[in-house]
Write a structure and sequence with these properties.
Distance between the termini: 98 Å
Radius of gyration: 26 Å
Largest sheet: 8 strands, mixed
Number of helices: 3
Helix content: 25-40%
Order of helices and strands: HEEEEHEEEEH
């Protein structure tokens, strides 16, 4: 009888401990922030540019935020729904207006490459050259399931003259159906366009 009671007591202790563990797990889950239905997800742009082994330069580049028209001059993510129709990616937006994101992306990419010194146009710096331009296309094409980018760049010298200009276009397949997959494709496409842009800036003298 005593052995039976002892066994029952041990089982009750185990059950009590398990109950306490489950209670802590439940409380922890309740404490975590839950995603709400219809909540807008916020995304930034990010690229990985490897450091270039070539010799660095003393040339200093100042980067302006590019001009952009319509939906591209906002925090909304543009979707090409037809030849003459633009829409928005539902439930998602950029973390800042797209021209500001692109400006920051260009600066970080040039810094990571390492061949030029770089800053923002609003910084109190004496730049050898300014980079201005226009984001003409930055959209997700729903029909082709690709993102497309077209950045038209212009180089301006110290006398405020445009001394060279070139368009950089790229497209990349979207690998998935989530908004995060679309943004990942934008990051890959941006990396391709920026790699060519930096090569142009670093190696071709206007």
């Amino acid at each position: 009888m005593n052995a039976f009671l002892c066994c029952v007591g041990q089982r009750l202790q185990v059950l009590a401990r398990l109950g306490a563990v489950f209670m802590l797990i439940a409380l922890g889950a309740c404490a975590l922030p839950q995603a709400r239905e219809g909540e807008t997800r916020v995304f930034a742009l990010s690229v990985d540019i490897a450091e270039n082994d070539g010799a660095g330069s003393n040339r200093q580049l100042l980067v302006d935020a590019p001009s952009a028209a319509g939906l591209l001059d906002s925090e909304r993510i543009a979707v090409r729904a037809g030849a003459d129709e633009l829409g928005l990616l539902r439930g998602a937006r950029w973390s800042a207006p797209l021209p500001q994101l692109w400006q920051g992306l260009v600066i970080r990419a040039v810094e990571d490459d390492g061949r030029l010194r770089v800053g923002r146009e609003r910084d109190v710096l004496a730049g050898d050259e300014r980079l201005i331009g226009e984001l003409r296309v930055f959209e997700f094409d729903r029909e082709s399931q690709q993102v497309r980018i077209h950045f038209h760049a212009k180089r301006v010298d110290r006398q405020q003259r445009i001394v060279a200009e070139r368009g950089f276009e790229t497209s990349t397949e979207v690998r998935g159906s989530d908004a995060a997959d679309v943004v990942a494709a934008f990051n890959r496409a941006s990396a391709g366009a920026l790699s060519r842009l930096i090569e142009w800036l670093a190696t071709e003298q206007p």
